[in-house]
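Homework help board

Subject: predicted structure for assignment chain

Our instructor gave us this sequence and asked us to write out the predicted structure in token form, then describe one feature. I got the tokens but I'm not sure how to describe them. Can anyone check?
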Amino acid sequence: MGADFLLLDFEEDGSGSGGYAKVMSDEFIKAEMALFADQAKEVDIIVTTALIPGKPAPTLITQDMVESMKPGSVIVDMAAEQGGNCQLSEADKVVSYKGINIIGYTDLPSRLAAQSSELYATNLVHLLSDMTPEKDGNLKFDLEDEVVRGATVIRSGEVIWPAPPPKLNVAQQSDSQKVEPEEEKNKTEKTSKGFGQIGFLGIIALVIWVLGFFAPADFMAHFTVFVLACFVGYQVIWNVTPALHTPLMSVTNAISGIIVLGAVLQISSNSMVTIILATVSVFIATINIVGGFTVTKRMLQMFQK
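My token output:
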């Protein structure tokens, strides 16, 4: 969805038991705070969730970081009940500091009751689906499954709670070792894609050059426009971020409508080939229009209570 991980040039595992954080070294904290200070100047919203069992929540956002944020920015401190990750957070209050709103509510699940219930119900659905792999309604207790094991208190009359702590696989490679192969892979993909596009354009140019010897002038003019339209359209659609494909379907209704109008005008032609192609164009464009309106309706329903 376009999110990026923020990586520190520092080797230290910050994961504790049960998915909570653990206390880090002073060197790590110093590098981490420098990274947070840089990010605070750029972002509009910060959501903090860091908690350490049995200890106050670590301070991650200092007063100086808050002051460096843009006016109107928002900090949602979900650790406010344990002191907060933001230095200026106050439990169960919204603090406005120099144009920055710091939300410290400790009852967010009840304030977002519908969303909380939906998320919880979705988790239960996935749990039951995982425990009924045959889809026949018969539960299968796989204690090797960490989710099932962690949710099981008694099994065959024996109390087996609490579950053993999950085993975390800590990667031994450094961040630089992980990033370098990915960068090399991206360079290779870009190079191969570039050569592929050049070859494709070369073939099209060759076809147009050959047709120029035999086709009439008006045909060549229309054919050139057609090829350019295909190329430009392909480049525009292909470079759209995958997360925007759904709204893109809604926007392309206008383009599909233009195609339908052009095809309808061609149906009155005397050429049977032209009539067939125009009919197929109307059919395909209509599918796009129906799909676009369907997607638009679903998008609008997301904003209805």
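Reply (TA_rk): Your tokens look well-formed. For the description, you could write something like this. Residues 172-176 have pLDDT under 50 and may be disordered. That's the kind of observation they're looking for.
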